[in-house]
Amino acid sequence: xxxxxxxxxxxxxxxxxxxxxxxxxxxxxxxxxxxxxxxxxxxxxxxxxxxxxxxxxxxxxxxxxxxxxxxxxxxxxxxxxxxxxxxxxxxxxxxxxxxxxxxxxxxxxxxxxxxxxxxxxxxxxxxxxxxxxxxxxxxxxxxxxxxxxxxxxxxxxxxxxxxxxxxxxxxxxxxxxxxxxxxxxxxxxxxxxxxxxxxxxxxxxxxxxxxxxxxxxxxxxxxxxxxxxxxxxxxxxxxxxxxxxxxxxxxxxxxxxxxxxxxxxxxxxxxxxxxxxxxxxxxxxxxxxxxxxxxxxxxxxxxxxxxxxxxxxxxxxxxxxxxxxxxxxxxxxx
Length: 334
Ligand SMILES: NC(=O)C1=CN([C@@H]2O[C@H](COP(=O)(O)OP(=O)(O)OC[C@H]3O[C@@H](n4cnc5c(N)ncnc54)[C@H](OP(=O)(O)O)[C@@H]3O)[C@@H](O)[C@H]2O)C=CC1
Ligand SMILES: O=C1CO[C@H](CO)[C@@H](O)[C@@H]1O
Fold this sequence. Notes:
Elements: E1 9-13, H1 17-27, E2 33-39, H2 42-52, E3 56-59, H3 61-65, E4 72-75, H4 82-91, E5 95-98, H5 106-118, E6 123-125, H6 133-144, E7 150-158, H7 178-194, E8 200-208, E9 211-220, E10 226-232, E11 238-245, E12 248-252, E13 264-270, E14 275-280, H8 284-293, H9 299-321
Parallel strand pairs: 1-2, 1-4, 2-3, 4-5, 5-6, 7-10
Antiparallel strand pairs: 7-11, 8-9, 9-10, 11-12, 12-13, 13-14
Bound molecules: NADPH dihydro-nicotinamide-adenine-dinucleotide phosphate (NDP) and 1,5-anhydro-D-fructose.
């Protein structure tokens, strides 16, 4: 799946919230441009094209895939639609940059990988935090054992949002619920830090409006590394993690996307109480796009995405099993 041919021109599929940001990021990445945008309706495609200076507005996603002025597609659709359009794009010979979660199940993600491989196109899931310069520093510290023996990982991603109907995050058919949407981040963080898949887990959820609005999981990895992960739509904004080792801990309060008004940052707390704050410049989305259009092998990111998807499947199984209602309490003595 190394990919053939250069990638310059992107066709964008879907005109939602994330589209606005990524279109701007693609257009401001050296060597990349958005040449066409597709929507289910021509009016919406045209509105977006006019707003963002995109040459072609296309009605219908199929029509985008047959265009000669598109080398790669950026898929910004609800999660349950990712697999279908990623596979269709690969079969049309287009490289695939797909929003997270890559798909809604490991079986679908494997099918996407197989289609991209069979058609020699590049594939990357748009999990942008993995591409920040700061993440390279995390990787380096973990490899050199800066925190000593790893013990516990904590990660939480949430925001408070009483969604309106029509929102894909509330529609199970579209891959709604916080596990795929936000659990993707905390699972990717735990997998990134532990470097492997968990061997055991237990998870629970709070369901409202037909989907999981909050999920909490505890995971066990080899070598006694553990993790507690939390995500949800009913607590205020969190995008945090902590990695606790025998010698020091790493704390980061903005790992999924740095706060807009300050540089990406993290802290290292050592056993003596000394705290070092580190800050990092750079734009993770542009770096991700540059990596996607380059020729570096993307296999490590493929494995990271497949493992993340697998962890999500396992958490889903665990929450379905964990529906134990406690028996009635004993009578209270007055
Ligand atoms: N990387 C990041 O930081 C973020 C990633 N995301 C991810 O991006 C993807 C899209 O999320 P978001 O932009 O918030 O979604 P939106 O609901 O804002 O947009 C989704 C788009 O998909 C198209 N679509 C096609 N069929 C449907 C359908 N049945 N229901 C709703 N939309 C449909 C629509 O475009 P049209 O009508 O033009 O065809 C719509 O605008 C998700 O996978 C999400 O997880 C989201 C936010 C941030
Ligand atoms: O990936 C994402 C990042 O954060 C958003 C909220 O701010 C999510 O809903 C989204 O899907």
